[in-house]
Write a structure and sequence with these properties.
Layout lengths: L2 H7 L4 E5 L4 H13 L2 E5 L12 E5 L6 H6 L9 E6 L4 H10 L3 E4 L7 H46 L3 H15 L3 H15 L4 H10 L1 H7 L1
Parallel strand pairs: 1-2, 1-3, 3-4, 4-5
Length: about 220
């Protein structure tokens, strides 16, 4: 999504203010409403975030509550765009902001301007991070799958005394005949080798021919 699209979509985003109920919270909520966003306030810190929240404004202090760190920590499955709200800047507050991995920061007292620009910039940073995480996860899966296929190839090479290309051709042939992926076939071979352990090469060949050791692992 381009920056222009982010700006256009800001008013459609659902926001939450996680801040003690005081004049600062009221001022922030009023500014968000003037922008045109749906906003709700909540305090104290909930056990879980509502799934519908797109942008979360949260007060960050020198010693954030453990529940808050857990709520917004690295294990958070659906992490919204996060904007920290601070009263002052010192090493403890900065460390807390880094631990929470906020996408932007607002300082109190709030000014008449700055909330909208922080929302736009934070949303852009959040989207870039999500895209990078997705690409990294794809690369991790690709490496993992490659390792599984390689391990299966070496098992077949050892048991059948054939080349690497021939062993891969056997895996690929099985995948095509069963209409599944080479990774699933490779994992079934690894599982079978682990279970059967010291079975003879002939036994493996017989199982391969009859698909018995593959059926349990794949279907």
């Amino acid at each position: 999504m381009t920056t222009g699209n982010i700006i256009k979509s800001i008013r459609t985003l659902r926001t939450m203010v996680l801040h003690p109920q005081d004049a600062h919270a009221e001022q922030l909520i009023e500014q968000i409403r003037r922008i045109g966003c749906q906003v709700e306030a909540q305090w104290p810190v909930p056990h879980a975030l509502p799934e519908h929240v797109d942008i979360l404004f949260v007060e960050v202090t020198e010693s954030p509550a453990a529940m808050l760190l857990e709520l917004l920590g690295k294990e958070c499955e659906r992490r919204p765009t996060l904007i920290g709200v601070v009263s002052y800047e010192n090493p403890s507050v900065l460390n807390a902001l880094l631990d929470m991995r906020v996408d932007a920061v607002l300082t109190k007292p709030l000014r008449p301007t700055g909330v909208l620009s922080n929302m736009v910039l934070a949303r852009r940073i959040w989207k870039d991070f999500q895209r990078s995480e997705k690409e990294i996860n794809k690369l991790k899966d690709k490496v993992k799958n490659s390792q599984i296929v390689t391990q299966a190839k070496f098992i077949i090479m050892r048991l059948h005394d054939i080349s690497e290309d021939e062993s891969y051709a056997m895996i690929r042939s099985q995948a095509m005949s069963k209409r599944t992926s080479t990774v699933e076939i490779a994992q079934a071979i690894i599982n079978a080798d682990s279970i059967l352990g010291n079975i003879s090469s002939k036994g493996i060949k017989d199982a391969w021919g009859e698909h018995k050791f593959l059926d349990d692992g794949v279907e």
